[in-house]
Amino acid sequence: MQMISLENALKGNEYPGRGIVMGETPNGKYAVTAYFIMGRSENSRNRVFVEDGTGIRTQAFDPSKLSDPSLIIYAPVRVLGNKTIVTNGDQTDTIYHFMDQQQTFEQALRTRAFEPDAPNYTPRISGVMHVEDGEYHYALSILKSNNGNGDSCQRFTFAYSTPVAGEGHFIHTYQGNGDPLPSFEGEPKLVGIDDDMDEFTNMLWTSLNEDNKVSLFVRYIDLMTGEYRTSIINKHQ
Fold it and tell me: In this predicted model, what pLDDT tens digit does every residue of 21-53 receive, in sequence order?
């Protein structure tokens, strides 16, 4: 697979929806993940990321404008031991509880499907990173409708063992804007990762469509110590 420019991919798509990036820095020192959300409706745009222990959660920026919390208020990031779970919905909790019972990422996601928001049937995208004593691997998943058929769910998992330094993978919910919104297709995209967390975070945020971007989370995890740095940017501060 040919590596693409993450910056160009984001700048060229006004509405990728929600997106997850996972990979490793070129210097081989850090496992990296990023998660962003976008919105077209007032309800979707009325959100911020806040830290919640070792993870994050979404909350309404203006509670008086929150019309439906069911698909927009959740914990996108939770940490279970050496595992960092990142998703675009409440399946974060499903994965956390299954893995806490020594079951797998795939087993957890077999119990879930795409979001019940017809006619879009927004895909559920998820990722999990394992970092322990310098060893690192990660997996990404998408649960999507069968070409807009709300009675048929397709489940795909992509596992990356011994990641290559400087490489990452990017998956997002929508191919682009539309009505209904077209679901992501194919494998996660091969993209480059930056050694500098601040530069990587700034590139992501400035590349997202100004009208539609809502919040961004980035985390760099030291592969040897497990210590991490987190950056959160919210359009509503």
Answer: 999 999 999 999 999 999 999 999 999 999 999
Span 117-146, pLDDT tens digits: 999 999 999 999 999 989 999 999 999 999
| Count of domains for the chain | 1
DSSP 211: T
Phi, psi angle pair for 205, to nearest 5°: -65, -45
The predicted model scores a pTM of 0.98
Residue 106 in any domain: the answer is yes
Q: How far apart are CA 219 and CA 4, in angstroms?
A: 21
Cα gap 26→197, rounded to integer Å: 12
pLDDT above 90 for 3 = yes
Are the C-beta atoms of residues 56 and 50 closer than 8 Å to each other?
yes
Residue 1 belongs to a domain: no
- CA 141 to mean position of chain CA atoms: 10
**Cα–Cα distance, 154 to 162 (Å, whole number):** 27
What range defines the domain where residue 56 resides? 6-234
| 194: exposed, middle or buried (Cβ count in 10 Å: 0-12, 13-18, 19+) | buried
DSSP string for residues in 105-127: HHHHHTT--S-S-TTT-PPEEEE
